[in-house]
Amino acid sequence: MHPQPVQRRLEPELLDSLPPDHPDALLSRRDLRVINRVMGNARWFRSVLASRVRPGERVLELGSGAGELAAYLRPVSPLFDGIDRVPRPTTWPADARWHQADINVFTGWNDYPVVIGNLILHHFDDTALRALGNVISPHARLLVFSETTRQRFNQRFWNVVAPLCGANRVTQHDGSVSIAAGFCGEELPHLLGLDPSVWRWHITSTWLGAYRLIAERRA
Ligand SMILES: C[S@@+](CC[C@H](N)C(=O)[O-])C[C@H]1O[C@@H](n2cnc3c(N)ncnc32)[C@H](O)[C@@H]1O
């Protein structure tokens, strides 16, 4: 018998309320880099984009943060833009677009056949996810997201391992909040409102707690 899924629960993340140059924000971004490396997130995005993005397709990364994932992915997807509330990173290339905006009110989706994001969609409640799916899906051909798997085991694992590994207090808090707001099973495409007659998708979960969705518009 499968265990009952834990209810999705959203709470504010501390990183979202800190100025980008606050010492705790800098430490938490450092931790995020480590987490992304350990979970293999950047490598996974790179292999997916290398095999599925078509020449000339523009990619938009939701929640680009400090721009590190973008820098790693540009060699395989050169037309790569980002959106985040935080200011344009100093390392962001001059010929790439940076939308400093709230994703919930962004209107430039029609430029983007490919929309990706790492550890961003769990920030959105069910209503906001549906609204996001509604505005993205008419223009997009490919969606690629890596999130957290919402599972009791992952929550316990994180609560033990994060302090042992010296994660900053913001990371410890936000990691736990992110798992509680994560996804399981077929949830994410349904929350985005993707129509299975228009989209086909593939979901995987890793033992380290990543929840990964690749959705492609049917030909
Ligand atoms: C957990 S961080 C992940 C950053 C980066 N994707 C990574 O993996 O290192 C989430 C990012 O999403 C941004 N963010 C969260 N909600 C947002 C919103 N509604 N609109 C724009 N950016 C948002 C935050 O500013 C932050 O940079």
Please state how the strands of the largest beta sheet are arranged side by side. Answer: 3-2-1-4-5-7-6
Q: Which oligomeric form is depicted? A: single chain
Tell me the Rg in angstroms: 17 Å
- The CATH architecture: 3-Layer(aba) Sandwich
Question: Which fold name corresponds to the CATH topology?
Answer: Rossmann fold
Give a list of the ligands: S-adenosylmethionine
Helix and strand succession? HHEHEEEHEHHHEE
What's the overall geometry?
Answer: globular
State the distance separating the first and last CA atoms.
Answer: 37 Å
Instruction: Give me the number of helical elements.
Output: 7
- The overall strand count is 7
Could you name the ranges where pLDDT drops below 50 across 5 or more consecutive residues? none
**CATH H level: which superfamily?**
Vaccinia Virus protein VP39
Largest sheet data? 7 strands, mixed
Helix share bin: 25-40%
Structural class: alpha/beta
